[in-house]
Write a structure and sequence with these properties.
732 residues, alpha/beta, two-stranded antiparallel ribbon
């Protein structure tokens, strides 16, 4: 039989069981008017029991979904925990022995079901054996022991895997208890050396939850202040709001002592108080005395002890049973509104997770083809929407998608290119050297053309690298977007398809990068191919010469101010001022300028000859020979005109590239996504021979999907159960 059929059969049997319990409760409520007092308790606790069964049947612990209310029974080994539980049930059904007996948590659901003629009065059912009813409680004990050994072995090992047992009886009050392994300190059998730590951690994992009430069991013949159970409960419930103390073995206290102070809460106060009980001794168990007989002996004990008269309402198993049932019902009633909210929230999260995990891998070729095509089209459309700014998932905190590409093109490339000015790093000596080198053996004219064109090409070449970097940066951004565009329903469920999509998209982007780079190189080479001095925005030679002459005049004025002699007092100063007035407007003669030029040329630092004995002796020029500084107005004009022409023409070329390079990048690289990415992906990945491999999913993902589907089903069933319960209360 398939697992689906088994689950369906199991759910059907559980439904019949719960309907039977509800029917029995309904009959009892009709028979007795006094039954209405515990209708709420008898309804709330079975509600939680039903939820626990639903979550357990789904194969997940309820604590992994929502924390359901329960009562955890905590105590040290041989503190009397098992005797307390058996007293609450009224039957012997738990394993016993001198060593550790409870080695797995036992979730015990007690359901009050009035006796019906012709049907078993008391019966039990294990969740791991749905549909099988136990009426012999000795068989229940044997099955608990056998199920424990199946998981932990038969040599005292422990496990945190629950055993779930439901007991229906007219002799119990409805409640849910979890019997936890007793705290021990010495490892025996196959137990690990850290057995005490393991058990304490197991207990804490239950009682740390606010939804869990704590039944702290302590023997009366021990020091209550050092109780293991109370010590653990204080760690998670320091105010004692969730802890009910149980004092056992009152009948074996030292003569002359009693537990009245314990029961009054004078030693270790608890908000919920204490209940004292008298358990069966080992001899009673060996002689197979019944629980009913033990209850009579307990009543006789308290009747014979007048010191317990003032706390008699907190004494006896009957008082404990009423307290536990009432506390649990009140606790569930307080948690019920929040419980429904948590179930709905968990269901919503589980449904979203299941949607991300997607459907099961398709079996037929046509289904695989349809799924692959849908994923390809969704991916291509998502990337295009992100580039164009139409994605619904764009952030409000940072720039994403196409906005980052625009930032690269305008804020990084264009502004960076406009800041580039190669002429600023050229000194006058650099320009002079180029002018003289291009003149060769000829004399230099006033406005040389050849050095200007060579220098212009050198400046334009410096723009090639940033233009190519612009295309590379945009390509990198698109590759990052290609990776970010992969959704979890692809990367998590079909990792091979996700890798293939990313690789194919990056391959397509590389194909777009190559023509973009070629176009950029061509644009720069076009600028280098022809220096268009007829461009309407180019300043031209005459205007450049006018600007150079103005600069020359400003320079001449500054030099005259620098060469003025310092002021001297008296007569000489007046003479100097007079001489200055006479020379106002006078221009240096050609002979003076020639003399200044010859003087500069003949300065010792520039001489490569010497005069000895009336003759001139020539020297070889140095290997590194630099042009001299501008020493005549003509030389200064040459440099200034060349610099002005360079700045004007470079500005024109820079503006052209700042406009054309982003256009080339957009056309060949960015816009190609909308033109052909979908067709490229289909051509590469929509192939019959590779689709099965692309949709091969990780076995862990398949198991996760199955588990998540069970969670959704369990939470849906839990939500339906809650709704039915509310409807029942409304009708009532």
């Amino acid at each position: 039989r398939s697992s689906t059929a088994i689950d369906a059969s199991r759910r059907e049997r559980e439904s019949r069981t719960n309907e039977r319990i509800m029917s029995l409760n309904a009959r009892a409520s009709m028979r007795s008017s006094g039954a209405r007092e515990h209708t709420l308790g008898a309804g709330l606790v079975p509600l939680v029991n039903r939820l626990q069964d639903i979550f357990a049947s789904a194969g997940v612990r309820g604590s992994k979904l929502v924390d359901l209310p329960c009562i955890a029974v905590v105590g040290s080994q041989s503190s009397g925990k098992s005797s307390v539980l058996e007293a609450l049930v009224g039957r012997d059904f738990l394993p016993r022995g001198p060593d550790i007996c409870t080695r797995r948590p036992l979730l015990l659901q007690l359901v009050h079901t009035p006796a019906v003629r012709g049907e078993p009065e008391e019966w039990g059912e294990f969740l791991h054996q749905p549909g099988r009813t136990y009426t012999d409680f000795e068989e229940i004990r044997e099955e608990i022991q056998a199920e424990t050994d199946r998981t932990t072995g038969n040599n005292k090992g422990v496990s945190n895997k629950q055993i779930r047992l439901k007991i229906c009886s007219p002799n119990v009050l409805t409640m849910t208890l979890v019997d936890l392994p007793g705290i021990t300190r010495v490892a025996v059998g196959d137990q690990p050396e850290d057995i005490e730590t393991q058990i304490r951690n197991m207990i804490l994992s239950y009682i740390k939850k606010e939804t869990c009430l704590i039944l702290a069991v302590t023997p009366a013949n021990s020091d209550l202040a050092n109780s293991d159970a109370l010590t653990l409960s204080k760690q998670v419930d320091p105010e004692g709001k969730r802890t009910l103390g149980v004092i056992t073995k009152l009948d074996i206290m030292d003569r002359g002592t009693n537990a009245v102070k314990y029961l009054k809460g004078e030693v270790v106060p608890l908000r919920l108080g204490y209940v004292g009980v008298v358990n069966r001794c080992q001899a009673d168990i060996a002689e197979r005395r019944t629980i009913h007989h033990a209850r009579k002996l307990e009543a006789e004990f308290f009747a014979s002890k007048p010191e317990y008269k003032e706390v008699i309402k907190n004494c006896g198993v009957h008082s404990l049973s009423k307290n536990v049932s009432s506390l649990l019902a009140d606790h569930i009633a307080a948690l019920l509104p929040d419980l429904q909210v948590r179930i709905m929230r968990e269901r919503s999260e589980a449904e979203k997770e299941l949607e991300l995990l997607g459907p099961d891998a398709p079996e037929s070729e046509s289904e695989r083809a349809a799924l692959v095509l849908a994923k390809l089209e969704k991916y291509a459309a998502g990337l295009q929407a992100a580039v164009e700014g139409r994605s619904a998932k764009l952030s409000i905190d940072v720039l994403e998608g196409g906005a980052r590409i625009h930032y690269v093109l305008q804020e990084i490339f264009v502004k960076g290119l406009l800041e580039l000015n190669p002429t600023a790093s050229m000194t006058d000596e650099h320009i002079r050297t180029k002018i003289q080198n291009t003149a060769g053996t000829k004399a230099v004219l006033l406005v040389p053309e050849e050095p200007f064109e060579q220098l212009a090409r050198q400046c334009i070449e410096k723009m090639l690298e940033p233009c190519k970097q612009c295309a590379s940066l945009v390509h990198d951004e698109l590759c990052s977007m290609a990776l970010a565009n992969l959704t979890k329903d692809v990367t998590s469920v079909y990792p091979r398809l996700g890798q293939a999509l990313e690789q194919s998209c990056k391959e397509y982007l590389r194909q777009g990068l190559r023509p973009a780079l070629d176009m950029i190189v061509n644009l720069v080479e076009c600028q280098l191919a022809h220096i268009n001095t007829s461009h309407p925005d180019f300043i031209g030679g005459p205007d450049a010469l006018i600007l150079a002459q103005k600069a020359l005049k400003r320079r001449a004025g500054e030099e005259e101010e620098d060469e003025e002699a310092p002021d001297v007092p008296g007569k000489d100063k007046n003479k100097k001022k007079g001489a200055d007035k006479e020379n106002v407007g006078a221009k240096p003669t050609t002979m003076e300028k020639t003399g200044q030029w010859i003087s500069g040329m003949l300065s010792p630092s520039k001489r490569h000859y010497s005069i000895e004995n009336g003759t001139v002796k020539l020297q070889s020029p140095p290997k590194k020979l630099n042009a001299h500084q501008c020493e005549t107005p003509e030389e200064f004009l040459q440099v200034m005109v060349t610099r002005t022409l360079l700045e004007s023409y470079f500005s024109i070329s820079r503006g052209i590239l700042a406009d054309m390079v982003p256009k080339a990048v957009m056309h060949f690289l960015v816009n190609s996504i909308s033109r052909g990415l979908r067709q490229h992906l289909i051509g590469k990945l929509y192939q019959p021979g590779i689709m099965r491999n692309l949709l091969a999913e990780d076995p862990e993902i398949a198991a996760m999907r199955q588990q998540t589907r069970k969670r959704v089903e369990a939470l849906n069933a839990a939500a339906l159960t809650m709704s039915e319960f509310k409807s029942h209360l409304t009708v009532a």
